[in-house]
Structure formats: structure tokens, C-alpha cells
Amino acid sequence: MENESVAKSLKLFIVLSRAYKAINEHVNKVIQANGLNPTEFAVLELLYHKGDQPMQQIGGKILLASGSITYVVDKLEQKGMLKRIACPNDRRVTYAQITDEGKSFIQEIFPEHARQIHDLMSSLSDTEKDEAIHLLKKLGLPAGKF
Amino acid sequence: MENESVAKSLKLFIVLSRAYKAINEHVNKVIQANGLNPTEFAVLELLYHKGDQPMQQIGGKILLASGSITYVVDKLEQKGMLKRIACPNDRRVTYAQITDEGKSFIQEIFPEHARQIHDLMSSLSDTEKDEAIHLLKKLGLPAGKF
DNA sequence: TAATATTATCTCAATTTCAAAATTATTATA
DNA sequence: TATAATAATTTTGAAATTGAGATAATATTA
């Protein structure tokens, strides 16, 4: 029956939302306890792990409007966590670059961050995690392109 | 190796976030195209499907701060989608109740909403959806209680 | 080359959210 | 019945996010 299949999709949407929100709520608390908000942390982590990024690409990866990027980068710059670097080739472009201070911040926070996520995921076995990763990739990748 | 297991948890966290955000972004667009923001829709849908709710319980179910509930309920009341009903037993509590106008709004929107979610989930077979539901429940329920 | 379109960033006003304090009502206790 | 503790909602002010232009640089094309 077609209706049952739609109901199943709705059910999946609900459990997906619940799982994400429940986990995220805890993760955000640890981040905020360290003086950053979740968006700031996401930007800083991106720069730490992926290197310098043009402002716009940050928006693409973190899913943030252009006005918000300026705001967040301002905040992080004020805190000394990153600096703006003018692009030598294209004067329209500004890179965001993590500072040494930003790096040591991430280095200090990240292990606790990772450990907490690991704890929150402990209800699944490693095999189940692999299954979940597989299914969520299969679900998320096409949805991003609609 | 313990580190690999932590890395797997981080990976799962990332694909979970991506999948949720990718799907949610699309869902929110349809809702906003119909003149409500996602929070307003969530409240209205809750009242439609679960009946009258005390203000505070709305916050618990939608994961919203108490101050925000007042704001959202104000908005929906202004739009004629719900009304406040004083509780006869306890004068501290106020129920939010969906109006006929709110009901027909949901009735009009919901099929499109459900159909869109179904489309966004179409990369998984029914069996895979069942597996994903199982795993996400197992993941989300304990995380909610930490 | 000049005109036009596109792109990247920023500014600004409006919206949404939260956190903390204030208000009002209920319940427990002495 | 006072009094204190608890609870539900609202108010207030600040922070975060968006979307719509504004500005400036680059790319395209006639």
C-alpha cells in the first residue's frame, strides 16, 4: 500500500530529527561551556581541519547565509581565533585563516568533543554504526542535490 | 583499536548532521512558502495531531525555550491559527488549541508536506527505511536521557 | 574597448531565538 | 491562615540568522 510507505518515510523523518536534536543538544552544551557558540565552533573546526577558506565557501559548508558568515567571522576575529587574509589573485575574495590561538583552542577542546560524541553514540555497536553511516549517506547525499 | 572506534562515532555524527540538515532545508522551504516558519508549523502540527497542549509541554516536545513558546503562540494566535484556553483547574496553565482555520491549513498543507518528505527519502528502499528507523531510535532514545 | 553580467563580501533592518528576571498562581508546611 | 517553595507563563533585552540591497572587483561579450 502506497500510504504505508509514505507513513514510513514520515516516521523516518521524525526519528532522524529526534536523534539529531538529542545528540546535538548535548554537543552544543560542551561547546558553549568553552565560550563559543555552535556556529563559531563549526567555522573554526573547518579552518583547522581543512585549512584557509574563502568566506563564501564557509557558508556553503556550514550552511549559512552570506550575512551570517560576516557576522561569525567578525566574532571569531574579535576573539583572536582567526584573521582575514586578502586573496592576492582576486581582490573580491577574502580568506579566513585560523590563528595559533585558534589552533590551540581546537587542540584543547577537540578530544573532549570527540569523546563526548563517542559516548553519545555508545548505544550502537561498531557494526551498527557502519550500517547507520551507510544508510545516512545514502539518504543525505541525494537530498542535498534536490 | 579504540581510536578507530571514536573516529567512527565522529563520522556517524557528521553524516547524521548532513542528512538531517539537507532534508530539513528542503522541508522548511515548503513550509515557509506557505507563510509559516518551521517552529510555527511544528507547534501547529503538534496541536493538530495530539490535541490541546499546555504551553509548557509544547516547549518540551518541540525543544523550545519557554520564552520562545510565548512568542510563537502569539504569532499563531495573531494569524488565527490557534487560541489560548485557560485551564479550569489550574489558573497558572494555559492550553493552546488549534482553531478550525488552523485545522484546514494543516489539512491543506500536510499532504504536500508528507509527499515531499517521501520524495526526499526515496533513495532508501522500504526495508532500508525500517533498518534506519531501528538504528536511529536506538541512537536517539538514550541520547535524550543523558 | 565599453557595456553588461556575474561574483564576493559587507551592511542593515527585520525576524527569531534564548536566558534571566518578573509576574501570577498553586501547593506544602508550620 | 500565613509563609515559603514550587510551577507556568510572560516580559525584556541581547544574540544570532536571514534576506535584500550596496559596493567593489572580475568576467563576458558585443
Automatic annotation (TrEMBL), chains A, B:
Protein keywords: DNA-binding, Transcription, Transcription regulation
Record-annotated HTH marR-type domain positions: 9-141
Domain of life: Bacteria
GO molecular function: DNA binding; DNA-binding transcription factor activity
Classification via InterPro entries: HTH_MarR-typ, WH-like_DNA-bd_sf, WH_DNA-bd_sf
SUPFAM superfamilies: Winged helix' DNA-binding domain
Pfam families reported in the protein's UniProt record: MarR
Name of the protein: YkvE-MarR-type repressor/ transcriptional regulator
Organism of this sequence: Neobacillus massiliamazoniensis
